Amino acid sequence: MGPIVSALASALSGVAASVAGLILNIGGIITGAFLWLSVNILNWVLSPNFISLSYTDPANNAFLDVGWSLTRDFANIIIVLALVVIGLGTALRLTGYQAQKALPILILIALLINFTPVICGVIVDAANILMTFFVGDGFAGGNSFINSANSQWSNIESMAGRGKLWDPIASGEAIAAAAGALALIIFNVYAGLIYLLFALLFMVRYVAIWVLVILSPLAFACYILPDTKSVFTQWWKQFIQWSFIGVVAAFFLYLGDHFLMVTQNPEFHSAASTLSEVGSAPGLSGIINNIMPFAVVVVFLTIGLMLTLSSSAAGASGAMNLAKKSAPNVGKWMGKKGLAFARDKTPAGVRRWAERQATAKKWGEGEKGVKGALKRAASDPLARVRRTMGGVVTGALNEKLDTDTAYKKAKEQGIATNTIAFNKATDAERVGIMKAMREKGKSTEFLKGLPEKEKLKTYEKAIRMGDEDTAEAMARGSFDQTGDFEKILNQIEPGKYNAKGLTTADIDRDYTSYADKLIKETATEDQIKDYQEKWYEKTDSQGTKMIEHVYKSPSFGAKQHAFAALHHGPGFENGYLKFGQDKGVDWHFETTAGRANAPHALNILSSTPMQSLGKGWTGLNAQEIKQRTLANNIIRESPVLTNAKIKGASLDKVFIKYSKLRNEVKNYQGRAPVEVKREMQDIRDGLEAAKNGLRTDPKELDRFEEIERIMKYNPKP
């Protein structure tokens, strides 16, 4: 009886398992379809074709275009109201609402509101780049799930199909098939739900970012006032969270995908531990062994989903904490830049409006009687607000305050510290720093470490602010950029400055370029210290070397020459001497545009100190140079004397020639005295004829006789 009962029980259990297997077969088909659908929905959501609308660009998203434009207009209204609140806060001295702190932020926010889609776009694009790296090709591992499930289901159907009521072994396979089907259904449902949740997360992320971008102008506007900053903080936290939640999710999908690839390796299954066969259900252990790796991946993705939801919040909190730590410095810098931009770009009409508001009078002011008193009382609050607002705007636009503050601070600092401060400062502050370095005598050294573009911007700001001393100090320290300085002057006031950076008065003074003007107006040692290193080798915009401008400058005399030699060394002295020697002595006294080319230069090069130091022009006679200089000063005053020539030579040269011949006769040098005397007689005859021609003009005659005295002319043989 025992074997018969055992066989009967086994057959009955097999029948029950077969029936259950058939029912579970239907469930397996349905859940398998659910898994397939979930995997494909996830891949569809991750594909570029899911939604073609932009995350942050209103121009490529009609939804954003309508919503963002509306909130931007509301935000502009909030800015106007905030300006009124700041005015009242300044008048009432409310902490946090005073113009000194709140106005720079307001100006910055007013500028940034129009660029919130761009700001949001940068953050979202950064997150999307990371997402694309992880899941740019979709979730390929999902197909492995489906293929494995189909394969295991085929095994289950095969076992269930072989079930026979009287065969204990076949009945055991039916039991294994039923158990395997149940396990696979649970696996399909659970895995499908996980993929569906991931897909839902990515879909919701799209909409959440759109909503946050639409609200961004209002969030930025709320940052202006202390009591509304929390709105911006909350918005920013949500925006960071929804931007980067996709990155964390994509990371876990990426790891899960690669884990699945590893499970497809035959070595993975051969190395993996196997379950012992269940006595009455042979084949079940194989099914479970094949499902288990995929189950591990599903569990891993479940943990990943939970970590995604929690880590995104933590990441947003971290971003907020970082923002709080860096916000004071960043806000200060951006506020400073925004205020500087506003100062540069504010129309003159706005400035005049602010000035009118700052001096606004009460209604009925000056009117006597009760009526006037009532008018003044009624209008007093409004007048206070107008004056406060006008004063706030006027003070904010007064960039000289920034210049003065930077100047005082730079006076106490060295070159290295000021260079760092210069790179961070506004243009107005840079003018103050440059002014301090000029007064400390360090402008040339300071300018060497600055980018050319920043030097030009600072020069332009100094000119616009009316600080010509600082601007010219910068130009003297950058002679190789004088062509750029000329363009700036011409652009600022084309009616005042020509293309060479010269005014009408400069042209009347015979200045040929801006560099020529700078050199010819050099008077002090400090100005010469401002000169760029090796400036004498530079050329101006007209191709003329600086050394020529110096050499021909009537104001660059012996004192300036000594300062230049002291601060710029032998290079300057050698260049100065060489230029003169190349031109020759007579060139110095020749007249160009009514002026001698460079008579003072010969006085410098022939002076006793220069000769004794071995830096002068060898062979020059200081007394002779002095005589010719004085004589030429008189000759240039008279067109008659200027045109008077004796044997083709000018009067000063004739007198010098005569003096040399007298010395030759006296010392019997070079030639026979008779020949010398004959030449002297020819000169005397020429001079006498010239003098007789002037006797009808007493004034010209006096000039001629003055030249005779200067040249110590002695007509006696």
Set out the fold topology.
Elements: H1 2-46, H2 62-92, H3 99-112, H4 116-135, H5 141-161, H6 168-222, H7 229-263, H8 266-271, H9 284-345, H10 348-358, H11 369-397, H12 400-411, H13 415-424, H14 427-439, H15 443-448, H16 452-464, H17 468-476, H18 482-492, H19 504-508, H20 514-520, H21 525-529, H22 546-552, H23 558-583, H24 585-589, E1 591-592, E2 595-596, H25 599-605, H26 608-612, H27 622-635, H28 639-643, H29 651-667, H30 673-692, H31 698-710
Antiparallel strand pairs: 1-2
Task: Please give a structural write-up.
This protein is mainly α and 717 residues long. 75% of the residues lie in helices and 1% in strands. The chain has a two-stranded antiparallel sheet. Strand 1 and strand 2 (595-596) form a beta hairpin. Helix 1 packs antiparallel against helix 5 (141-161) and helix 14 packs across helix 16 (452-464). It is elongated, with a radius of gyration of 48 Å. Residues 159-171, 270-284 and 313-320 have low confidence and may be disordered.
Short description:
The protein has 717 residues and is an all-alpha fold. The chain is built from 31 helices and 2 strands. The chain is elongated.
Shape: elongated
What is the β-strand count? 2
Radius of gyration: 48 Å
Low-confidence stretches: 159-171, 270-284, 313-320
Euclidean distance between termini CA atoms: 175 Å
Strand content: under 5%
- The strand order across the widest sheet is 1-2
Helix content: over 70%
In DSSP terms (H or I, runs of 4 or more residues), the helix count works out at 31
Mean pLDDT comes to 74
Structural class: mainly alpha
Largest sheet: 2 strands, antiparallel
